[in-house]
Each structure stands twice: as C-alpha cells, then as structure tokens.
Amino acid sequence: MALIELSDALAEVRTALLDEAFTRATASGRRRGVTVGAEHPERVEVRPVLLRGVRHVQVTERTGPVVRTRNLRVEEPVGPADVDGLDALLAMPFATWHAETAAGAVQVQVTKKGLATVGRTAAAAGPAAAGELANDRRKQHLLDPDDPLFRVLGAGGDKRRQVDAFLRQLAAALPDDVAADRPLRVVDLGCGNAYLTLAAQRWLAGRPAGARTVGVELRADLVRRSTERAAAAGVEGLTFTAGTIADADPSVELGGPPDVVLALHACDTATDDALARAVAWDAPVVLAAPCCHRDVQRQLVAAGAGTPSSSLSPAQDALVASPILRERFADVLTDSLRAAALRAQGYRVDVVEFIDSAHTPRNALLRAVRPGRADPAPAREAAQRELEELAGTWRVRPLLGQLLAATGGSAPRPRSAGS
Description:
By secondary structure, the chain is an alpha+beta fold. The chain folds into two domains: 3-136, no CATH class; 148-407, Rossmann fold. The protein is 36% helix and 24% strand. It contains 13 helices and 15 strands. The strands form two sheets. The protein has an eight-stranded antiparallel sheet, covered by helices on one side. A seven-stranded mixed sheet has the order 11-10-9-12-13-15-14, with helices on both faces. Strand 6 and strand 7 (104-110) form a beta hairpin. Helix 4 packs across helix 5. Residues 126-139 and 410-419 have low confidence and may be disordered.
C-alpha cells in the first residue's frame, strides 16, 4: 500500500462522514510519538442520525468508563460550530480510522512518520452494507428479513427484531483491529436452539476475512437440530458440538482461541461458567444475555430474607422480602456482580437493554470488551473492591468471582490482532 499525506487520507474519511449513504465509523489507537492528556478518548464511534429530519452524525467518545456523546450537523447548511466539531474530530491523534458507506469502506492507518496508508473495499453483503438512521425509526436490517434462515427457523416479527437488535450490539462491540486479516473466531457456549448463533455466523460471514463459529450445547438433540438448520439455511463456517461449557475447547475447530465468546441461552450459573471460560481464553469480546438467576435468589433466601432471622439490614429486607421483588432484584444484583468481576479482569463492561421488553422479558445484555491496552492496576483493584463490597453487603458469594479466583483469572494484557 502506497504512503500518502495524512491530510489527504483524512479527507477521504471526511468525505465518507458527509456522504448521505454513511453508515458507521470508528477511530482508535494512539499515534506513535504523540503525547495526549488523560481526557483524550481511547475510541470514537460515529453513526448517522436524523434529528428533526436533518442529517447529523452522532459522535460517541469513550475514555475509560466515561462516555460522551454529541451530534454534528452534516446536511447543508452546516453551521460553523458543526464544521469546527468535525475538524476537531479528525484532528484527534488516532492511529486508525475506519469509515463505511453503503458503497464501501475506507481504512486509514497512520505511520510513525506521520504519513498514512489507505485501504478501500467495496461493500459486502453482510455487516458493511448495513446502516440505520436511528432517531427517525427508519429501519434497515443487518440481516435481510427475506434471508432463508428466518424461514428455516420459523421466525416471526418479534424474533427477527431480536436478531437484528443482537447483531447491532455485536457490531458495536467488535473492535476494528480484531481478526482484521483472518476469519473471526466465535464460540457460543450453551447455544440452546442456536437461532442467534446461526444469525451471527450468517452476518459475520460478510466480513472481508469471514468468520468461523462453534456452538457448544449439552443436549445432543439440539446439536443435531441446529446442524440440520444450518445446512438447510446454507449457513457455512458453523459447527455444533455436544458437551459442557466447562469442558469446551473450540480452538481446534476455530484454529485458535476465540475472539468472541457468546453466552446467549445459558441458564443460571451456566452464564458464570461461560464468562469464566471467556476470561481464561482472554477473549477480546464477550456478549452474554443471562437467562435466569436462581443461584443468588437461593443465597438471599439462605440469608433469611424477609424472616425474623434475617442477616440483612431492615432496609435490605424491605427490598427482598416479597418473592417477586426478590426475583427481580436477584437479576439486577447478579448481573452487577458479574460486571464488576469482569471489570476486575480488565474488561470494559456495559449492561444494556438489547431489545424492548415487549419482545422478550430477558432483554439485558452484558457487553464486555478487552481494551487494546490493559487498564491500570488501580482501576482493576477498584472493581475488585466493588465486587467484594457488593457481595458482602448482600451476604452472597457470586459464582463467577469464585471461578475466577480458583483459576487465577487472566492477566489483563493487550492482545495482538493476529494472535
């Protein structure tokens, strides 16, 4: 790839951002030899939005746990503040820019001498071809609603919306530098009926280097059914294997440790097993949609919640004395403990609602991403203290914390894109 002036390369990014067919952009990494302050964002994500019928780009800056969002108008007439905002965005000393439109993508890599290489690709039928102007509800699906996969699955409107919402969360979590030059390696632990596994592989296959996915499920009948569905829908690069999460080793089928670990159907403590395996594999991206939280509920009952012998405070008892409130609170407490445990291992964690509760009652998604460079030790230690204090306050022992303590977790460290 030929070297060009950085200003010329960034001009191509600007052109993409202003394009009516712009779909998404990201900027990440720090240029060599450039010193920045602590407030400098580690990553920027840009997407198109319509505000009162006018095209804008929404800029999301991520600095540690802090997220800042602002909107810049890109439809004429563009005001001076918006022009200055776009100039300031492109002037940030990122090492990499990736911008996509419906026609294709441009990738800019800044060299240590301050020049740039530019890669250009035409639009694929998968992730790069999709986009959404979110604020006006004008929907463009990441997976074509007419895809034969939906017919094979017998999926109605609610299921299709859930698939689309999940794929958008997956797209938002994937760093640009993960598996940029080889197939993405994905494992779904406890994949159940595997409709999201199938949809994820169908969509990820549209990446320039493609993807390979392994679904792990204890029930042999579900493994057979999912294998048959994959064949019927023509989903390639996907295999299913029968076994437990604890014994799963997809590295042979995938050709290496997984880049993405999914746990979308695992019930109760199976989610903890899956998250512990993800940490042990040092997976850069982890997405988990917990199903039920009986373990913590049992521990709250064991603590005497709502009884005269309760070891909880009166205020805590008032919160969990009712069985239905205890069940709902256990959901929140369990996922809060899991998020803290993952942060203590160096992950950046968001707990998000990935689809409206009208479509499914289990709509929380744990989205954990290992940053390109390890979080400082004080941040991980603070997360560990948060985990211990939260567990101690409620007299519970979260299984994920125990699993990570037993295995020593995984040392938070950068992982190279090609590993």
